[in-house]
Amino acid sequence: xxxxxxxxxxxxxxxxxxxxxxxxxxxxxxxxxxxxxxxxxxxxxxxxxxxxxxxxxxxxxxxxxxxxxxxxxxxxxxxxxxxxxxxxxxxxxxxxxxxxxxxxxxxxxxxxxxxxxxxxxxxxxxxxxxxxxxxxxxxxxxxxxxxxxxxxxxxxxxxxxxxxxxxxxxxxxxxxxxxxxxxxxxxxxxxxxxxxxxxxxxxxxxxxxxxxxxxxxxxxxxxxxxxxxxxxxxxxxxxxxxxxxxxxxxxxxxxxxxxxxxxxxxxxxxxxxxxxxxxxxxxxxxxxxxxxxxxxxxxxxxxxx
Length: 305
What we know:
Layout: E1 15-19, H1 28-41, E2 46-50, H2 56-60, H3 71-76, H4 82-85, E3 87-90, E4 93-96, H5 105-108, H6 118-123, E5 132-136, H7 143-151, E6 154-159, H8 169-182, E7 188-194, H9 202-217, E8 229-230, H10 239-243, H11 251-254, H12 259-272, H13 276-279
Parallel strand pairs: 1-5, 1-6, 2-4, 2-5, 6-7, 7-8
Antiparallel strand pairs: 3-4
């Protein structure tokens, strides 16, 4: 890892996307890591922010979550400037890392005035230097997630297609609505992304259809999800997506020809208009080759994070 090896300069208008679901194990971290890799490989200056104390995104991108200080904690609770806390992990790709110390941030900030907008204020100094900022939210609806929603323009909700995935979906949308009404009127749900999808299983299709019907019923409403859709490309169940984080690699570095890589290129094309055919052969590789480590018991996962 290298700290700001590329010089950060003025960029165009920046889109800030919070990737959110209060249920863990649905594909949030895998989605942030791989969409950001497509954007960076396509020449887009991209910042990813790890707000999950489990630091799965930090590990996925090859950073050492145990030895490196948590950039997110230093910014949110330590008053450090965001630019000083960034790590550059690949060409055009920067990381605000996480760590276990982020667990204490919510408690430490509970008496702070404006505690929900600390991240938004910190990003105000640097957002003009990036084309995209993607935020990996923790699997909860606490203060860290509120900071992400206060800072973001858009929300992407990854969903695993089974019955329990719909439990709590209404509460998640209600939280987004409250943030939209009270803190961030620009916030809206961009899309729902089906992860670990298997079209051969009837329940997968039923869950997708239920979400599509719900979104269609909201088209004429004034809710933040009135313009949302289900991304027409689904992330198919793929073991390579689960293996890649153990090596500190994105799917394009680990197995660029697998279904997972194909799906995330197509999703990036849908969400961001990337020309992914040209990107596929140029997917960013880590700046520090030491990040290509063998799997460890602590990082190996049977499903994407």
